[in-house]
Amino acid sequence: MKKRSIVKAILAAVMIIMIGAVIVLFGFFSSEERNLMLFMMTNGSSSENQLEYQVIERNESAPAPTSFEPVTAETSDDDHNINITVITEMVQNENSKMLKQATVQPNGAGEYLGWQLLADEGFEDGVNTFGPSPLSYLTTGAATNLHTQILRVAEVMDLELDDVKVEVLDKFHWEDMMSDGGAGYLGETYTNIIIESSESEESISELTRIALNAWTAGEAFGNETTIVPSLVVNGDHWDDYRAVPGTSLSDESYEEGLILTQIIDEPKPSQYFEQVIEEDSDMSFNAISNLVFEILAISESADDPEDPYLKKVTVSFNTTESETWVLYSDEFDGTDEVPKAPTSLEYLTAGTALCLTSQTTLVSAMMNLDYTDFRVEQQIDYREEDVNSLEMAGYADTVYSNVIIESDESQGRLNEFFEKSLALCFAGEAFKGATNMYTSCYLNGSEL
Length: 448
Known about the structure:
Elements: H1 2-27, H2 31-41, E1 51-53, E2 56-58, E3 82-92, E4 100-106, E5 115-119, H3 134-157, E6 163-175, E7 183-196, H4 201-214, H5 216-222, E8 226-233, E9 244-248, E10 253-255, E11 258-264, H6 285-289, E12 292-301, E13 311-317, E14 324-329, H7 344-367, E15 373-385, E16 393-406, H8 411-424, H9 426-432, E17 436-443, E18 446-447
Parallel strand pairs: 1-9, 3-9, 7-17, 8-16
Antiparallel strand pairs: 2-5, 3-4, 3-15, 4-5, 6-7, 6-12, 10-11, 11-14, 12-13, 13-14, 15-16, 17-18
Helix pairs in contact: 2-7, 3-4, 3-7, 7-8
């Protein structure tokens, strides 16, 4: 009996020492760092009843935002204007606290209901097991959008292109993410247009000039875009949309026999970029707070003879521990024929809203915010003028970005949460600010 008492005393002493060590250790960190550490160390919500999603699949119903009424763009034979609505929600999952989904659709698209996309960011080993990152979708949208415009311009100019490839390398970074003035940025976008063709250099140079002018995503990144943000607190916004338990059983998604998503073993190397693949080993709070990373998307033809606009995209981070995803993209021309995969501007729009959803998750964790649920509702208005001429031009006019939250926190705390979430959003800043854009064109292996 005496030995048991001694053992209990030793265990109690060890426990007290360990608790004291944890208290001392935590004392070195700010409240934001402590809160984020606890968030990263704990599991997400567990449930035996989970919805099973594909990474990408068709919507069963069009997104129906509660904070605004979707507006259909006015268009004509010469102008292909389009407004796109997206709603993002968190997906409750024990293995990922960053799992979320987006439902996205062009407004007024009739029978075409758009798509649901899963996105994830993994803290452990940099692995995104349930879906690509939000910014992977964003960069995919930028690459495929330019690829589309090259094909359209070639049709107008009556040029024969044997092969087209577009590489987009986006460079993102946070600055003092955990501080009051923290912000996220898309600092630079590098683009390679790679063409195989017997057409003259002069013709391909002119094609490139027109395509870049018509590159809607490039205009959105390279110029300041109007952002109209809004925070909606409580109210009657929760009848149809709430975070629910869910999972994805596979990285492969199928739609009518087409594999829309899959993970491949190694990143696809750029043909011309000297992309540095770095070990993602520094997980200090200073490194996280000033995170610098690149995403490369390579858009190629899917070699579908019936659909020249169907593209295969390989997208990867510049870290050895992140997965490389293969995604497919198609285009929507407003006819009865629906695209086989999400369109370039759907990817761009969904990536933007999903990125903001990531920041609201992290900021709520850093602030230890007391809330029941939140989501993001957005509409981005795009404009494409003179599409069947050599004067075609693309624009992103306005981003309407609403964060819906159910919480009893004070208005001051919620406003702080909202403003910091907006500031940290890489994608939002890509639209709001003017990104440095660098483009090269290669014809048959030679730079023009």
